[in-house]
Design goal:
Layout: H1 10-20, H2 24-29, H3 52-55, H4 71-77, E1 82-90, E2 100-108, E3 118-123, H5 131-142, H6 146-150, E4 151-156, H7 174-181, H8 189-210, H9 212-215, H10 220-233, E5 239-244, H11 246-257, E6 262-268, H12 277-299, H13 314-322, H14 324-327, E7 330-331, E8 337-338, H15 340-350
Parallel strand pairs: 3-4, 3-5, 5-6
Antiparallel strand pairs: 1-2, 2-4, 7-8
């Protein structure tokens, strides 16, 4: 398997749903480990000076249909139990009177009950995964669980992502298809130089189409501050949070910035904050290979396994099936093609779900 950064999608949502079942006791019992911060903010609920208008805003809840980006989204978001709103936050917290960002928020409210605890805020990671999509999928399966009965399930699209505005814009339409066809499999010096040049070009397009002022304001610390505004707007004195993958970095950053405002956190698949991106990708690749090997052992025990019957040969067989796509992408009925990177990404997304 080749290490490829995974993207959001239903497989990841299903993995989050499965793992959440085992985390109920932690969330209900408020077992939180707070990461010490270098600065201690004001007590819970109080708004930092100059941000009162944001912390005190009332969210105007309504139907979620305007947030649907796909037909599948439209079907899920049609559930009348789901409510959506937009939350305003400063694009630059150092200049709260300046330009604002609009954060897309979705919730599934718990039924009225004296046992209701508050909101459970969820982020599935990515970075770039949709929190509203994840919350919508999860909420439909949690209604009859202790979590669904005692928490409003809340998701948000981090600034720059999904239905939040402004959105990061880099590659569009045919450019994205062309990027998908470029598999970056040439590890020679010339190949690496070419890849670096292409990445620099993409960064330039991001800056040109999104604006450097927006890009400067979409960091993890900004997202963590948005979470505290959302906590207050939801009426919660403290945050209950569930984060996966990159969502664990958001959670730990929040705990550093707002230690008094944490009720409980579950950080699953935590990222090492001291690990450089290259080492992170290598470790991620090992994890995907391990998941693939586990899948292969199960697959080869079945008579219809397309990877054969020998677990030791499955990676080789998989590569024999997919590597021809490097030079000859598979034409699709809609006129697009299935590239090698598409095949890798589809496989990796599936590896998030236990077979």
């Amino acid at each position: 398997m080749t290490a490829v950064r995974a993207t959001a999608g239903r497989p990841r949502v299903l993995a989050v749903r499965a793992a959440l079942v085992g985390l109920v006791a932690l969330l209900l019992g408020a077992c939180a480990q707070v990461v010490p911060g270098t600065a201690v903010p004001d007590a819970a609920v109080s708004a930092p000076p100059g941000l009162e208008v944001f912390y005190g805003q009332d969210l105007a809840w309504g139907p979620c249909a305007p947030f649907a980006a796909t037909e599948e989204d439209r079907q899920i978001y049609a559930d009348p139990a789901l409510q959506c709103a937009r939350m305003q936050v400063p694009l630059d917290y150092a200049q709260p009177q300046g330009r604002t960002a609009s954060i897309a928020v979705l919730r599934h409210a718990a039924p009225p009950s004296p046992e209701r605890i508050g909101s459970l805020m969820i982020n599935p990671g990515g970075p770039g995964a949709s929190g509203i999509q994840t919350a919508a999928y999860l909420a439909t399966s949690l209604t009859q669980t202790d979590v669904g009965r005692r928490f409003d399930v809340v998701g948000f699209d981090p600034r720059g992502v999904g239905e939040s505005e402004p959105t990061i814009r880099c590659l569009e339409g045919p450019e994205r298809d062309a990027d998908r066809r470029d598999d970056d499999t040439d590890a020679s010096s010339a190949g690496v130089t070419q890849t670096e040049a292409e990445e620099q070009q993409t960064v330039g397009l991001c800056a040109q189409r999104t604006g450097t002022d927006v890009l400067a304001g979409v960091g993890t610390r900004d997202v963590a501050r948005d979470m505290d505004v959302l906590r207050a707007a939801l009426g919660d004195e403290q945050l209950t949070y569930l984060g996966y993958s990159y969502g664990t970095r958001i959670g730990s950053t929040y705990a550093e910035q707002f230690p008094r405002n944490v009720r409980a956190m579950v950080l699953d698949g935590a990222l090492d904050p001291d690990q450089d991106p290259t080492a992170e990708l290598i470790e991620q690749g090992r994890g995907f290979q391990g998941a693939f090997d586990a899948f292969a052992r199960d697959c080869t025990s079945r008579s219809d396994c397309p990877l054969g019957r020998d677990p030791a040969q499955t990676t080789r067989v998989y590569q024999e099936l997919t590597r021809p796509l490097i030079s000859a992408p598979l034409p699709l009925p809609d006129g697009r093609v299935l590239s090698y990177s598409d095949a890798q990404q589809g496989t990796i997304n599936a590896l998030y779900v236990e077979a």
